[in-house]
Amino acid sequence: MELRHFRYFVAVAEEKSLSRAAKRLHISQPPLSAQIRDLEEEVGTELLNRSVRGVTLTAAGVRLLETARKILRDADDIKRLGKTSDSARTLRVGVGPVAQHRFLPTILRLAQTASPVLDLHILPMNQTQMAEALHSGTADAALMIPDMTTFGLGFERFYDEDGCIVVGSDHPLARRSEITLRELAAENWVMFSRELAPTVYDLFYRSCAAAGFVPKVAMTVASYEVRFSYVAAGLGIALAPASAKVQLPPNIVCLDLTPPLKQPVGIAWHARSAALDQLISLSREAVSREVAAPAQA
After folding, report:
1. What's the average pLDDT block by block, 10 residues per block, for the chain (297 residues)?
2. Residues 6+ apart with CB under 8 A from 157
3. Most buried among 14, 76, 97, 239, by the most CB within 10 A?
4. Structurally, what CATH architecture does the domain formed by 161-262 represent?
5. Domain 88-159+265-290, what architecture?
6. Coil, helix or strand for 112?
7. Strand partners, 164
8. Beta strands in 13-153 (DSSP E)
9. Which helix (H) or strand (E) holds 69?
């Protein structure tokens, strides 16, 4: 029996629905159902009454709910105690490609000079993984784009990141400096999987629909770096954050989108602490230095 069993049970009890609880926890429904069954086996009785209209708690489930909530509160208190130590302040920080390319190096430099007692453990993740890590307590903060998966988390916006279009240097559009989505209706796209960045993915498809077309996806890949390789090979074009300009290989060109596709970038957290307050302050400073001017190619 682990903390996640109690966290899942509380979510199901509060949502009164396995499907809604699964969305809240950012997992699919079958694994959630399996975890609840495991918990029922552990306690030796059924905790839920299941029907097509949803779920309700059994008498045993009602008794366990308050106990589970108390266990989770106590676990959060224990985590906060560890983070308030004056001698060692460690934060596990999820980061995605935008933060890595744009302002993470400056945060790390500031942490060494301005706050040497702050120990940052950087965890490269995609957007979905960062939200899951924050909700499960395996990360303390994340430098990310918020979406529905960050519901219930704290969030501070730093700035809005523009999107851009990357094409191979021998592509007919490579001499352009900017372009509209409507002009790209006939192009083949190298897309990232929705799990990497659900907010950007959904915004892109909505924007294409508003421009009057459905993107022709030549292939879907699981990382930004692989996308750039396919683009350089001439197999399609791709959407990328404007901050990616600083790391593009020489055989790829970045075109600004008009109007721009903007997404808020900031820091999300599950629980505040003195160490987190330091990180937020350092992040504000890093962003003010690095994002004041557009990223240069």
Report:
1. 84 87 84 87 87 86 87 77 56 89 89 79 89 91 80 88 93 94 96 83 93 95 82 93 80 92 90 90 91 49
2. 146, 264, 265, 266
3. 239
4. 3-Layer(aba) Sandwich (3.40)
5. 3-Layer(aba) Sandwich (3.40)
6. helix
7. 240, 256
8. 48-51, 54-57, 89-95, 118-124, 141-144
9. helix 59-83
